[in-house]
Amino acid sequence: RISAYIEEEVQRRLQGLHRVVGDGSSDPADTVKDNEKLHNGTIQRKLKYERMVSRSLGANPDDLKDPIKISIPRYVLCGQGKDEHFEFEVKITVLDETWTVFRRYSRFRDMHKTLKLKYAELATLEFPPKKLFGNKDERVIAERRSQLERYLRDFFSLMLQSATSPLHIDKVGLTLSKHTVCEFSPFFKKGVFDYSSHGTG
């Protein structure tokens, strides 16, 4: 749209200059130079503007291929006694915004159950099962970390493609942001489920 507008403006000004030349009031060679100056100036402004817009929107074509990156780099032991539990650090990057939340396994499960009711296609995702024993075993937790990470990646991949999802890439496109993701589910909001010393539970 902007490109079309700029092109239209260049054409309009060029026609104005041609009219002046038609009057015979100036040298055609000067007019050609003026034309070139005007055109080059407009091109420069256009390029500068397009660079500015693409930077502010983070609209790198590669970003839009993979607009949400998610990982679970580690887990931490929290609480004491009966309340002792592991929390997983969830690192989320949406275009050029990155933030981290800490969540325990039950929060992942709650999110999955809630959103599965809204978006039937989530039922096809494999969610790491609840274990009756070994919840505090390091090997079990390490395995669960990688399963939850895989789950979240598949989850976003599905939600960005699902026609019913508010995160569908054709709906949000360049307006995709941290805010969009946090509105989609409080699971991703920093400061929600505040229990532990890490800020979230």
Automatic annotation (TrEMBL):
<dbReference type="GO" id="GO:0035091">
    <property type="term" value="F:phosphatidylinositol binding"/>
</dbReference>
<protein>
    <recommendedName>
        <fullName>PX domain-containing protein</fullName>
    </recommendedName>
</protein>
<feature type="domain" description="PX">
    <location>
        <begin position="66"/>
        <end position="180"/>
    </location>
</feature>
<dbReference type="InterPro" id="IPR001683">
    <property type="entry name" value="PX_dom"/>
</dbReference>
<dbReference type="InterPro" id="IPR036871">
    <property type="entry name" value="PX_dom_sf"/>
</dbReference>
<dbReference type="Pfam" id="PF00787">
    <property type="entry name" value="PX"/>
</dbReference>
